[in-house]
């Protein structure tokens, strides 16, 4: 069965760890001796409670969260978070700072503006086609938060260090690099992450919010758009995305059992990324699109000498069992997404294919 699986470099939804998929398959018809599938049991049952609280506990351990930090599961993807963050944290007299590093940041900015909120774009890498992340910023005094996209899935850039914001909390979209490395949690007021890149299936978004930050949230919001609702009901005000949360629990268990800590996970990710960037940097054929000091360890973006060669590269790679290498439709080129679940063997197979392709076509 696994013989038919390809090396999956999809940007999202993307590869999940094979042991997780096998566990889901093995328990699908009879989850934990319930005689039912995880998609059939009641979300109010003890068996589902154990899944939900188990997943939350793993998040807490991996990121060393404080006991009063909230871990929430919300539907609507990261895209709903673009709207929920300003809705919850910007009152009529408030302002927030945004860093624009590409498509996803721009969408977050757009959603704040649609609501008529006051925001400042305090830094942008648009001047160089989003090929880098701004390293130093200067915040608006009294800003409620600074919004940052930690990893830019489309442009292949990533903050290796988060900008210094002093007492202003960071709000971070970590949809494409959550759990890929340890985090300086003291800097964040809120982190959100759509699951389908590094965490699980689409349909669920994980939010981590500090109690002190949550306390400052606006009142009188629609119930399902208020973080406080999710915090007060342990994400069970309404029916949660049960299957997604279950898969997240298994993915986090896999990280804990395979790597132990996020430091080890990060080392593994660095080795994987280096393998591809070494091929790119050692060739006159492939051209990295992100500047060296801003390169993503999750999404390796590159160009070939011509678009025709790029099309042939993507097609021949697929014939060789390497899938998902086409760049985002908005930017073209090639992109290898090498999230946590993409194994070293897959990356090595891609590196070897890239060298072969260059020898033949370069
Ligand atoms: C994929 C992605 C999104 C969009 O996520 P949805 O769950 O589709 O709304 C937002 N931000 C980043 C950084 C992403 O990679």
TrEMBL record:
The keyword DNA repair does not apply. One of its GO terms (biological process) is pyridoxine biosynthetic process. It is found in: Cytoplasm. InterPro entries: Aminotrans_V_dom, Pser_aminoTfrase, PyrdxlP-dep_Trfase, PyrdxlP-dep_Trfase_major, PyrdxlP-dep_Trfase_small. Pathway: Cofactor biosynthesis; pyridoxine 5'-phosphate biosynthesis; pyridoxine 5'-phosphate from D-erythrose 4-phosphate: step 3/5; Amino-acid biosynthesis; L-serine biosynthesis; L-serine from 3-phospho-D-glycerate: step 2/3. Catalyzes the reversible conversion of 3-phosphohydroxypyruvate to phosphoserine and of 3-hydroxy-2-oxo-4-phosphonooxybutanoate to phosphohydroxythreonine. This is Phosphoserine aminotransferase. The lineage of its organism: Bacteria, Pseudomonadati, Thermodesulfobacteriota, Desulfobacteria, Desulfobacterales.
